[in-house]
Write a structure and sequence with these properties.
By secondary structure, this protein is mostly beta strands. 2% of the residues lie in helices and 46% in strands. The protein has 2 domains: 221 residues, Jelly Rolls (Sandwich), CATH 2.60.120.200; 97 residues.
Length: 374
């Protein structure tokens, strides 16, 4: 199925969809303003530009358009994001053709959105297993034993596949057709029966709450391993003041009726306490939490589109924004960012994946007025 797929007292995290982007170069173009300030011109995704003072530039910019390089506009330096995934994985190219990336190769794929293939984006997914046999030649079959949890059945081509209980106990059984997956829950582990009708060209039954990228199988189920994407916080992230921005597109764009799980925009690991910024799948709020505090922004109606969301923090107060839908909240928190040793862009244990690009990390706080302009 084609997917619709530092040192002051305030700081900001922002995750943004369809953002202004900086030039894809090792250093930013700059000109001198009439008052002598060193100015830089930033290209915008909509074709326009914005002018910004050099001292207001982000510390880090990660395009995620074709490679894993990041740029340091203020210093002129560059670096490389750490990426890992053992085994191959699939993605869509700009023509809507499925491609395969080899082991340890990042995927820069496209999403079918609003009548066109939009991208490229870095594809970041957790591990998933396709439990059907001979996935490119769909045929009626009984699966092996499935553990309890949420599963999605989807097909491509002019046909359908119905799922029914075998020895398992399930809720939400139904018939999947192209563009219409079935999400069901296994409440008692066991087998399920898949009945194929018509002529689907491939099918997938995976242990996720939404369709993820295609996993080819032959005589046995197969697993796509997780994408791990990270940078080192030291020298890149300021615990007391800063800004994180990115364009994101979530695989699970609708709430799941049962079960728990999250899609992380960021997660710090490796410390005694760590911060995480994520969307909860079945309850839908955007949340920021560490080991002692949690802040939630409810009222989000997630649909298939790029999103702008934001988290600001400093001292004992943080705020969350869903910029796309004009929602925000603020509340007390327990102080500075708890970074640990690794900043994960996503999380390998997520229930579903997401696409991301144009990530900015600032070593200064953006005001609420600035947040909405990015």
């Amino acid at each position: 199925m084609k997917k619709f797929m530092a040192w002051c007292v305030t700081a900001v995290f922002v995750v943004v969809g369809l953002l202004p982007v900086m030039a894809h170069a090792d250093t930013m173009p700059s000109t001198s303003s009439p008052n002598g300030d060193d100015m830089c011109i930033l290209p915008m995704l909509n074709g326009g530009t914005r002018t910004i003072r050099h001292d207001q530039l982000p510390n880090i910019y990660i395009p995620f358009r074709s490679d894993l390089k990041y740029y340091c506009p203020q210093s002129g330096g560059t670096g490389t994001v750490t990426f890992s995934r053992s085994g191959s994985a699939t993605y869509w190219d700009s023509a809507g053709t499925r491609q395969t990336a080899g082991s340890q190769v990042a995927r820069f794929g496209y999403i079918y959105y609003d009548g066109a293939w939009v991208g490229p984006w870095l594809v970041r997914e957790p591990a998933a297993t396709n439990h059907v046999l001979n996935s490119a030649a769909p045929a009626t079959q009984t699966t092996g034993s499935l553990g309890t949890g949420i599963y999605t059945l989807w097909v491509e081509g002019s046909g359908s596949c119905a799922v029914a209980a075998g020895t398992a106990t399930i809720t939400g059984a139904g018939t999947a057709s192209s563009g219409t997956p079935v999400v069901f829950s296994v409440t008692v582990s066991g087998t399920v029966v898949l009945t194929v009708s018509g002529s689907p060209t491939l099918f997938q039954l995976e242990n996720k709450p939404c369709p993820t990228s295609y996993i080819a199988t032959t005589a046995a189920p197969a697993t796509r391993n997780a994408d791990s994407v990270s940078i080192t916080p030291a020298n890149n992230v300021n615990v007391t003041t800063g800004t994180f921005l990115a364009s994101v597109f979530l695989e699970a764009s609708v709430p799941v009726a049962s079960g728990t799980g999250s899609i992380h925009f960021i997660q710090f690991t490796g410390g005694t306490t760590t911060d995480a910024f994520y969307r909860n799948i079945n309850l839908e709020p955007i949340r920021n939490h560490d080991s002692t505090s949690t802040l939630s922004l409810s009222g989000n109606t997630w649909v298939v589109k790029p999103y702008k969301v934001a988290l600001t923090w400093g001292g004992a107060v943080r705020a969350i924004y869903n910029i796309t839908d004009g929602l925000s909240t603020s509340g007390s928190f327990d102080g500075n960012l708890s970074t640990g040793t690794t900043l994960n862009l996503g999380y390998t244990g997520d229930m579903a994946g997401h696409y991301e690009r144009d990530i900015y990390i600032f070593n200064r706080a953006l005001s609420a007025a600035e947040v909405v302009t990015w």
